[in-house]
Amino acid sequence: xxxxxxxxxxxxxxxxxxxxxxxxxxxxxxxxxxxxxxxxxxxxxxxxxxxxxxxxxxxxxxxxxxxxxxxxxxxxxxxxxxxxxxxxxxxxxxxxxxxxxxxxxxxxxxxxxxxxxxxxxxxxxxxxxxxxxxxxxxxxxxxxxxxxxxxxxxxx
Length: 156
Ligand code: CA2
Known about the structure:
5 helices; globular; binds ligand CA2; alpha/beta; five-stranded parallel beta sheet
């Protein structure tokens, strides 16, 4: 079974700037970590990144179809700044039905007020915030455990 790991705007710059906030790991490091975590959980991770909101919407819709077909466990999503602005991503997650675990590397609640609100949290199956890049691993483990507890893919 597959897990889709989606990273949003500017996360392609991980490791290149703001190491005090986001750490020194690059996006390639994060994706490698995700592939290892998925393999340990008996799944495979497919990792994608885009700076474009519409493409992220397309991928969530695609994930919904794969989830309904029983080939996808769910999505791990760090939507970056779109978290705080995107009704389109909210609607895509809600409409697709696919379980989405929202991940943030930093503790957004300890930062600027504009990062405290998420349009995605109300439609997320779970949220992992402030654990650095380990948050991606926790999200993958959570998705795998959720599916195992239900005896396969979870379609709630
Ligand atoms: O903490 C997170 O994971 C965030 O989703 C990261 C987003 C931010 O807008 C969210 O509020 C919280 C920003 C990602 C930008 O990443 C950069 C990495 C290096 C250099 C510049 C930006």
